[in-house]
Amino acid sequence: MSQASPSRLGDRTLPAIAFAIAAAARVSYLVIFRPPLEGSYLALADSLVSSGVLGFGGVPSTSFEPIYPAFLAAGRMLLGDRTLAIQIVQACLAAAGAALTCRLALRLTSSRRTAAIAGLMFALHPLLIRQAAAATDLGVTAAMLAGFAASFVAIGGTWSAAATGAWLGLTVLTRSMTVPLVALSAVILAARRQFREAAALSFTAIVFIAPMVARNFALSGAPWPGRSGINLFIGNSPHTSALLPTYDLDLLEADAYDRFIRASPHAASDGGSDAAFDAFLTGEAIRYMAEHPWATARQKLLNVAYMLSPRITPYEVSGRQTRLRVEDGRVLGVEGSVRRRGSEIAAHAVTSLVLLVGGAAGVYRRRRALVRSDAILWAIFGTFVVINAVYVPATRYTGPMQFVLIFYAAVAFARPGEGLRDAAVA
Questions:
Q1: 38-43 contacts, C-beta under 8 A, 24 or more apart
Q2: What percent of the chain has pLDDT above 90?
Protein backbone atom coordinates (compact mmCIF):
# COMPACT_ATOMS: atom_id res chain seq x y z
CA MET A 1 0.00 0.00 0.00
CA SER A 2 1.43 3.36 -1.03
CA GLN A 3 1.65 6.14 1.49
CA ALA A 4 1.12 9.85 0.96
CA SER A 5 4.33 11.85 0.87
CA PRO A 6 5.05 14.34 3.67
CA SER A 7 4.53 17.22 1.24
CA ARG A 8 1.10 15.87 0.23
CA LEU A 9 0.11 15.46 3.87
CA GLY A 10 1.24 19.02 4.56
CA ASP A 11 -0.81 20.33 1.65
CA ARG A 12 -3.89 18.65 3.12
CA THR A 13 -3.22 19.55 6.72
CA LEU A 14 -2.66 23.29 6.29
CA PRO A 15 -6.13 24.03 4.89
CA ALA A 16 -7.70 21.92 7.63
CA ILE A 17 -5.84 23.84 10.33
CA ALA A 18 -6.80 27.16 8.72
CA PHE A 19 -10.45 26.09 8.69
CA ALA A 20 -10.34 25.01 12.34
CA ILE A 21 -8.87 28.34 13.45
CA ALA A 22 -11.34 30.31 11.34
CA ALA A 23 -14.33 28.33 12.60
CA ALA A 24 -13.24 28.74 16.22
CA ALA A 25 -12.80 32.50 15.79
CA ARG A 26 -16.19 32.95 14.10
CA VAL A 27 -18.16 30.78 16.50
CA SER A 28 -16.47 32.48 19.47
CA TYR A 29 -17.44 35.91 18.13
CA LEU A 30 -20.98 34.66 17.55
CA VAL A 31 -21.37 33.25 21.05
CA ILE A 32 -19.89 36.32 22.74
CA PHE A 33 -21.62 39.11 20.79
CA ARG A 34 -24.81 37.33 19.59
CA PRO A 35 -25.46 39.45 16.48
CA PRO A 36 -29.15 39.24 15.46
CA LEU A 37 -30.23 37.28 12.40
CA GLU A 38 -33.39 39.30 11.79
CA GLY A 39 -33.79 41.19 8.53
CA SER A 40 -34.85 40.91 4.92
CA TYR A 41 -33.00 37.66 4.30
CA LEU A 42 -34.73 35.87 7.16
CA ALA A 43 -38.09 37.18 5.94
CA LEU A 44 -37.30 35.77 2.49
CA ALA A 45 -36.36 32.45 4.08
CA ASP A 46 -39.61 32.31 6.06
CA SER A 47 -41.56 32.99 2.87
CA LEU A 48 -39.75 30.14 1.15
CA VAL A 49 -40.58 27.78 4.01
CA SER A 50 -44.23 28.79 4.35
CA SER A 51 -45.21 29.29 0.71
CA GLY A 52 -42.30 28.19 -1.47
CA VAL A 53 -42.06 31.74 -2.86
CA LEU A 54 -38.87 33.81 -2.91
CA GLY A 55 -40.38 37.04 -1.70
CA PHE A 56 -42.10 38.66 1.26
CA GLY A 57 -45.32 37.30 2.71
CA GLY A 58 -45.78 34.97 -0.24
CA VAL A 59 -45.45 37.82 -2.79
CA PRO A 60 -42.58 37.19 -5.26
CA SER A 61 -39.66 39.60 -5.21
CA THR A 62 -36.61 40.04 -7.43
CA SER A 63 -34.70 42.18 -4.94
CA PHE A 64 -32.38 39.43 -3.71
CA GLU A 65 -30.40 36.49 -5.07
CA PRO A 66 -31.68 33.01 -4.12
CA ILE A 67 -28.74 31.12 -2.56
CA TYR A 68 -28.47 32.79 0.84
CA PRO A 69 -32.25 32.89 1.50
CA ALA A 70 -32.40 29.23 0.44
CA PHE A 71 -29.65 28.40 2.94
CA LEU A 72 -31.55 30.16 5.72
CA ALA A 73 -34.76 28.42 4.66
CA ALA A 74 -33.02 25.05 4.91
CA GLY A 75 -31.79 26.06 8.35
CA ARG A 76 -35.32 26.96 9.37
CA MET A 77 -36.63 23.61 8.19
CA LEU A 78 -33.91 21.62 9.96
CA LEU A 79 -33.35 23.73 13.08
CA GLY A 80 -36.58 25.68 13.48
CA ASP A 81 -36.33 28.87 15.53
CA ARG A 82 -32.84 28.05 16.85
CA THR A 83 -31.21 30.94 15.02
CA LEU A 84 -27.95 30.58 16.94
CA ALA A 85 -27.54 27.07 15.52
CA ILE A 86 -28.24 28.38 12.00
CA GLN A 87 -25.62 31.10 12.52
CA ILE A 88 -23.07 28.52 13.71
CA VAL A 89 -23.57 26.55 10.48
CA GLN A 90 -23.25 29.79 8.50
CA ALA A 91 -20.07 30.71 10.37
CA CYS A 92 -18.54 27.33 9.54
CA LEU A 93 -19.43 27.73 5.86
CA ALA A 94 -17.78 31.15 5.85
CA ALA A 95 -14.76 29.69 7.69
CA ALA A 96 -14.14 27.44 4.69
CA GLY A 97 -12.80 30.56 2.99
CA ALA A 98 -9.65 30.29 5.12
CA ALA A 99 -9.00 26.75 3.87
CA LEU A 100 -9.74 27.77 0.27
CA THR A 101 -7.45 30.81 0.48
CA CYS A 102 -4.75 28.54 1.87
CA ARG A 103 -5.25 26.15 -1.05
CA LEU A 104 -5.18 29.05 -3.52
CA ALA A 105 -1.82 30.17 -2.13
CA LEU A 106 -0.46 26.62 -2.34
CA ARG A 107 -1.49 26.32 -5.98
CA LEU A 108 -0.06 29.69 -6.97
CA THR A 109 3.22 29.52 -5.03
CA SER A 110 3.88 25.91 -3.90
CA SER A 111 4.97 27.52 -0.64
CA ARG A 112 3.49 26.03 2.53
CA ARG A 113 4.72 29.01 4.53
CA THR A 114 2.88 31.44 2.26
CA ALA A 115 -0.22 29.26 2.37
CA ALA A 116 -0.14 29.04 6.17
CA ILE A 117 0.15 32.83 6.52
CA ALA A 118 -2.67 33.40 4.01
CA GLY A 119 -4.99 30.94 5.77
CA LEU A 120 -4.24 32.43 9.19
CA MET A 121 -4.78 36.01 8.00
CA PHE A 122 -8.15 35.06 6.49
CA ALA A 123 -9.11 33.18 9.64
CA LEU A 124 -8.40 36.16 11.92
CA HIS A 125 -9.54 39.03 9.66
CA PRO A 126 -11.92 41.13 11.84
CA LEU A 127 -14.30 42.11 9.02
CA LEU A 128 -14.59 38.52 7.78
CA ILE A 129 -15.22 37.26 11.32
CA ARG A 130 -18.08 39.74 11.83
CA GLN A 131 -19.65 39.07 8.44
CA ALA A 132 -19.58 35.30 8.96
CA ALA A 133 -22.09 35.63 11.82
CA ALA A 134 -24.16 38.54 10.50
CA ALA A 135 -27.49 38.49 8.66
CA THR A 136 -25.81 38.93 5.29
CA ASP A 137 -24.51 36.80 2.46
CA LEU A 138 -21.11 38.53 2.42
CA GLY A 139 -19.33 35.98 4.62
CA VAL A 140 -20.50 33.08 2.47
CA THR A 141 -19.73 35.03 -0.71
CA ALA A 142 -16.15 35.58 0.47
CA ALA A 143 -15.66 31.83 0.88
CA MET A 144 -17.25 31.05 -2.48
CA LEU A 145 -15.08 33.58 -4.32
CA ALA A 146 -11.95 32.15 -2.74
CA GLY A 147 -13.10 28.69 -3.82
CA PHE A 148 -13.73 29.90 -7.35
CA ALA A 149 -10.26 31.47 -7.55
CA ALA A 150 -8.60 28.32 -6.20
CA SER A 151 -10.48 26.24 -8.75
CA PHE A 152 -9.67 28.62 -11.60
CA VAL A 153 -5.90 28.56 -11.09
CA ALA A 154 -6.02 24.75 -11.16
CA ILE A 155 -7.92 24.44 -14.47
CA GLY A 156 -6.32 21.67 -16.50
CA GLY A 157 -9.04 20.68 -18.96
CA THR A 158 -12.68 21.11 -19.91
CA TRP A 159 -14.06 19.18 -16.93
CA SER A 160 -12.14 21.22 -14.39
CA ALA A 161 -13.18 24.36 -16.26
CA ALA A 162 -16.82 23.27 -16.06
CA ALA A 163 -16.43 22.70 -12.31
CA THR A 164 -14.98 26.19 -12.00
CA GLY A 165 -17.97 27.52 -13.94
CA ALA A 166 -20.25 25.86 -11.40
CA TRP A 167 -18.34 27.60 -8.58
CA LEU A 168 -18.81 30.91 -10.34
CA GLY A 169 -22.47 30.32 -11.16
CA LEU A 170 -23.26 29.61 -7.51
CA THR A 171 -21.31 32.71 -6.49
CA VAL A 172 -23.36 34.89 -8.86
CA LEU A 173 -26.54 33.36 -7.43
CA THR A 174 -25.30 34.50 -4.02
CA ARG A 175 -24.19 38.03 -5.01
CA SER A 176 -24.98 39.07 -8.57
CA MET A 177 -22.37 41.82 -8.72
CA THR A 178 -19.86 39.04 -9.51
CA VAL A 179 -21.48 38.39 -12.91
CA PRO A 180 -18.75 40.30 -14.85
CA LEU A 181 -16.38 37.53 -13.79
CA VAL A 182 -18.11 35.17 -16.24
CA ALA A 183 -16.85 37.25 -19.16
CA LEU A 184 -13.53 38.13 -17.56
CA SER A 185 -12.75 34.49 -16.78
CA ALA A 186 -13.47 33.48 -20.37
CA VAL A 187 -11.27 36.28 -21.70
CA ILE A 188 -8.37 35.21 -19.46
CA LEU A 189 -8.63 31.60 -20.61
CA ALA A 190 -9.01 32.61 -24.26
CA ALA A 191 -5.93 34.83 -23.98
CA ARG A 192 -4.05 31.69 -22.88
CA ARG A 193 -5.46 29.91 -25.94
CA GLN A 194 -7.55 27.64 -23.70
CA PHE A 195 -10.62 28.07 -25.88
CA ARG A 196 -12.39 24.85 -24.89
CA GLU A 197 -11.90 25.63 -21.23
CA ALA A 198 -13.26 29.15 -21.75
CA ALA A 199 -16.36 27.78 -23.43
CA ALA A 200 -16.89 25.11 -20.75
CA LEU A 201 -16.57 27.60 -17.89
CA SER A 202 -18.86 30.18 -19.50
CA PHE A 203 -21.50 27.65 -20.53
CA THR A 204 -21.69 26.03 -17.10
CA ALA A 205 -21.86 29.39 -15.29
CA ILE A 206 -24.65 30.58 -17.62
CA VAL A 207 -26.62 27.38 -17.05
CA PHE A 208 -26.58 28.10 -13.32
CA ILE A 209 -27.41 31.80 -13.68
CA ALA A 210 -30.07 31.58 -16.42
CA PRO A 211 -33.04 30.57 -14.21
CA MET A 212 -32.55 33.61 -11.95
CA VAL A 213 -32.23 35.92 -14.95
CA ALA A 214 -35.37 34.47 -16.56
CA ARG A 215 -37.35 34.81 -13.32
CA ASN A 216 -36.23 38.40 -12.79
CA PHE A 217 -37.12 39.32 -16.34
CA ALA A 218 -40.54 37.67 -16.14
CA LEU A 219 -41.40 39.48 -12.89
CA SER A 220 -39.82 42.90 -13.44
CA GLY A 221 -38.76 43.18 -17.07
CA ALA A 222 -35.10 43.45 -16.03
CA PRO A 223 -32.51 40.64 -15.71
CA TRP A 224 -30.79 42.03 -12.62
CA PRO A 225 -31.99 42.04 -8.98
CA GLY A 226 -34.61 44.65 -8.18
CA ARG A 227 -32.49 46.50 -5.62
CA SER A 228 -30.04 47.70 -8.29
CA GLY A 229 -31.93 50.95 -8.82
CA ILE A 230 -32.02 52.03 -5.19
CA ASN A 231 -28.32 51.24 -4.72
CA LEU A 232 -27.38 53.10 -7.89
CA PHE A 233 -29.44 56.12 -6.81
CA ILE A 234 -28.11 56.44 -3.27
CA GLY A 235 -24.59 56.23 -4.69
CA ASN A 236 -25.32 58.85 -7.35
CA SER A 237 -27.65 61.50 -5.98
CA PRO A 238 -27.36 65.21 -5.15
CA HIS A 239 -26.85 64.27 -1.47
CA THR A 240 -24.32 61.43 -1.81
CA SER A 241 -21.16 63.51 -1.42
CA ALA A 242 -22.59 65.26 1.65
CA LEU A 243 -22.89 61.94 3.52
CA LEU A 244 -19.71 60.12 2.48
CA PRO A 245 -17.58 58.87 4.10
CA THR A 246 -19.05 59.58 7.55
CA TYR A 247 -22.68 58.47 7.22
CA ASP A 248 -24.54 55.51 5.78
CA LEU A 249 -25.98 56.11 2.31
CA ASP A 250 -29.02 54.01 3.26
CA LEU A 251 -30.30 57.24 4.85
CA LEU A 252 -31.15 58.37 1.31
CA GLU A 253 -33.71 55.60 0.79
CA ALA A 254 -36.53 57.74 2.24
CA ASP A 255 -35.66 60.56 -0.18
CA ALA A 256 -35.63 58.07 -3.04
CA TYR A 257 -39.12 56.83 -2.17
CA ASP A 258 -40.43 60.39 -1.82
CA ARG A 259 -39.13 61.24 -5.29
CA PHE A 260 -40.83 58.18 -6.72
CA ILE A 261 -44.18 58.97 -5.08
CA ARG A 262 -44.06 62.57 -6.31
CA ALA A 263 -43.37 61.35 -9.85
CA SER A 264 -45.91 58.47 -9.69
CA PRO A 265 -48.52 59.29 -7.00
CA HIS A 266 -50.58 56.17 -7.67
CA ALA A 267 -47.61 53.77 -7.81
CA ALA A 268 -47.87 52.63 -4.18
CA SER A 269 -51.12 50.79 -4.95
CA ASP A 270 -49.80 49.35 -8.21
CA GLY A 271 -48.90 45.68 -8.14
CA GLY A 272 -45.85 46.36 -10.32
CA SER A 273 -44.58 49.24 -8.20
CA ASP A 274 -41.34 47.44 -7.23
CA ALA A 275 -40.26 47.18 -10.87
CA ALA A 276 -41.38 50.76 -11.55
CA PHE A 277 -39.49 51.97 -8.45
CA ASP A 278 -36.29 50.29 -9.60
CA ALA A 279 -36.59 51.64 -13.15
CA PHE A 280 -37.38 55.16 -11.92
CA LEU A 281 -34.37 55.30 -9.58
CA THR A 282 -32.06 53.86 -12.22
CA GLY A 283 -33.14 56.65 -14.56
CA GLU A 284 -32.71 59.29 -11.85
CA ALA A 285 -29.17 58.10 -11.09
CA ILE A 286 -28.15 57.99 -14.76
CA ARG A 287 -29.63 61.44 -15.33
CA TYR A 288 -27.69 62.87 -12.39
CA MET A 289 -24.43 61.32 -13.59
CA ALA A 290 -24.99 62.63 -17.13
CA GLU A 291 -25.71 66.16 -15.88
CA HIS A 292 -22.72 66.19 -13.49
CA PRO A 293 -19.94 64.24 -15.25
CA TRP A 294 -16.98 65.88 -13.49
CA ALA A 295 -18.52 65.72 -10.04
CA THR A 296 -19.40 62.08 -10.71
CA ALA A 297 -15.86 61.21 -11.83
CA ARG A 298 -14.43 62.92 -8.76
CA GLN A 299 -16.84 61.04 -6.49
CA LYS A 300 -15.91 57.71 -8.03
CA LEU A 301 -12.22 58.33 -7.38
CA LEU A 302 -13.05 59.26 -3.81
CA ASN A 303 -15.15 56.11 -3.50
CA VAL A 304 -12.14 53.96 -4.36
CA ALA A 305 -10.14 55.75 -1.68
CA TYR A 306 -12.96 55.24 0.85
CA MET A 307 -13.10 51.50 0.11
CA LEU A 308 -9.37 50.97 0.60
CA SER A 309 -8.88 53.51 3.38
CA PRO A 310 -7.84 52.48 6.91
CA ARG A 311 -10.70 54.75 8.07
CA ILE A 312 -13.82 52.59 8.04
CA THR A 313 -16.71 53.72 5.80
CA PRO A 314 -19.23 54.75 6.96
CA TYR A 315 -17.61 56.00 10.14
CA GLU A 316 -20.97 56.21 11.90
CA VAL A 317 -23.90 53.84 11.43
CA SER A 318 -27.65 54.31 11.48
CA GLY A 319 -29.88 53.40 14.40
CA ARG A 320 -33.63 53.48 14.88
CA GLN A 321 -33.56 57.19 15.75
CA THR A 322 -31.22 58.30 12.96
CA ARG A 323 -32.72 60.95 10.68
CA LEU A 324 -31.41 62.86 7.67
CA ARG A 325 -32.19 66.59 7.70
CA VAL A 326 -32.75 67.99 4.21
CA GLU A 327 -34.04 71.49 3.47
CA ASP A 328 -34.34 73.26 0.11
CA GLY A 329 -32.45 70.43 -1.54
CA ARG A 330 -29.47 70.66 0.83
CA VAL A 331 -28.32 68.26 3.53
CA LEU A 332 -28.28 70.15 6.82
CA GLY A 333 -27.07 67.26 8.94
CA VAL A 334 -27.72 63.81 10.36
CA GLU A 335 -29.40 63.38 13.73
CA GLY A 336 -29.12 60.34 15.99
CA SER A 337 -26.30 58.54 14.19
CA VAL A 338 -24.50 55.83 16.14
CA ARG A 339 -20.74 55.96 16.62
CA ARG A 340 -18.96 52.69 15.97
CA ARG A 341 -17.12 50.97 18.79
CA GLY A 342 -13.55 52.10 19.18
CA SER A 343 -12.36 48.48 18.98
CA GLU A 344 -14.06 48.07 15.58
CA ILE A 345 -12.49 51.27 14.24
CA ALA A 346 -9.03 50.30 15.50
CA ALA A 347 -9.28 46.70 14.24
CA HIS A 348 -10.17 47.87 10.75
CA ALA A 349 -7.44 50.51 10.71
CA VAL A 350 -4.71 48.06 11.74
CA THR A 351 -5.90 45.26 9.44
CA SER A 352 -6.29 47.60 6.48
CA LEU A 353 -2.81 49.09 6.91
CA VAL A 354 -1.22 45.65 7.20
CA LEU A 355 -2.99 44.37 4.09
CA LEU A 356 -2.39 47.49 2.00
CA VAL A 357 1.32 47.72 2.79
CA GLY A 358 1.87 43.97 2.69
CA GLY A 359 -0.29 43.58 -0.39
CA ALA A 360 1.65 46.23 -2.29
CA ALA A 361 4.92 44.51 -1.38
CA GLY A 362 3.51 41.13 -2.43
CA VAL A 363 2.35 42.52 -5.77
CA TYR A 364 5.87 43.81 -6.39
CA ARG A 365 7.40 40.44 -5.51
CA ARG A 366 5.04 38.65 -7.89
CA ARG A 367 5.21 41.29 -10.64
CA ARG A 368 6.31 38.72 -13.23
CA ALA A 369 3.26 36.56 -12.52
CA LEU A 370 0.59 39.27 -12.48
CA VAL A 371 -0.52 39.01 -16.10
CA ARG A 372 -0.64 35.24 -16.52
CA SER A 373 -0.86 33.39 -13.21
CA ASP A 374 -2.61 36.03 -11.11
CA ALA A 375 -4.97 37.49 -13.72
CA ILE A 376 -8.11 36.07 -12.09
CA LEU A 377 -7.20 37.73 -8.78
CA TRP A 378 -6.99 41.09 -10.50
CA ALA A 379 -10.27 40.43 -12.28
CA ILE A 380 -11.96 39.79 -8.92
CA PHE A 381 -10.34 42.79 -7.24
CA GLY A 382 -11.15 45.08 -10.16
CA THR A 383 -14.77 43.93 -10.35
CA PHE A 384 -15.39 44.77 -6.70
CA VAL A 385 -13.56 48.11 -6.85
CA VAL A 386 -15.36 49.31 -9.98
CA ILE A 387 -18.87 48.17 -9.08
CA ASN A 388 -18.72 49.36 -5.48
CA ALA A 389 -17.29 52.69 -6.64
CA VAL A 390 -20.20 53.12 -9.05
CA TYR A 391 -22.77 52.02 -6.46
CA VAL A 392 -22.05 52.23 -2.70
CA PRO A 393 -18.43 52.37 -1.41
CA ALA A 394 -19.03 50.90 2.06
CA THR A 395 -16.19 48.98 3.70
CA ARG A 396 -18.49 46.03 4.39
CA TYR A 397 -18.90 45.37 0.66
CA THR A 398 -15.16 44.79 0.24
CA GLY A 399 -15.27 41.65 2.41
CA PRO A 400 -15.49 39.12 -0.45
CA MET A 401 -12.39 40.52 -2.18
CA GLN A 402 -10.21 40.68 0.94
CA PHE A 403 -8.66 37.28 0.19
CA VAL A 404 -6.85 38.86 -2.78
CA LEU A 405 -5.10 41.38 -0.53
CA ILE A 406 -4.49 38.60 1.99
CA PHE A 407 -2.75 36.44 -0.63
CA TYR A 408 -0.35 39.20 -1.69
CA ALA A 409 0.36 40.19 1.91
CA ALA A 410 1.16 36.55 2.69
CA VAL A 411 3.62 36.50 -0.21
CA ALA A 412 5.32 39.56 1.25
CA PHE A 413 5.47 38.15 4.78
CA ALA A 414 6.85 34.74 3.76
CA ARG A 415 10.59 34.11 3.78
CA PRO A 416 12.51 35.79 0.94
CA GLY A 417 12.39 33.46 -2.03
CA GLU A 418 9.18 31.73 -0.97
CA GLY A 419 5.89 32.48 -2.69
CA LEU A 420 7.74 33.22 -5.93
CA ARG A 421 8.04 29.85 -7.66
CA ASP A 422 5.17 30.57 -10.02
CA ALA A 423 6.50 34.07 -10.65
CA ALA A 424 9.83 32.63 -11.73
CA VAL A 425 8.14 30.23 -14.11
CA ALA A 426 5.95 32.97 -15.54
A1: 38/135, 39/135, 40/64, 41/68, 41/69, 41/72, 41/135, 41/136, 41/137, 42/72, 42/83, 42/135
A2: 76
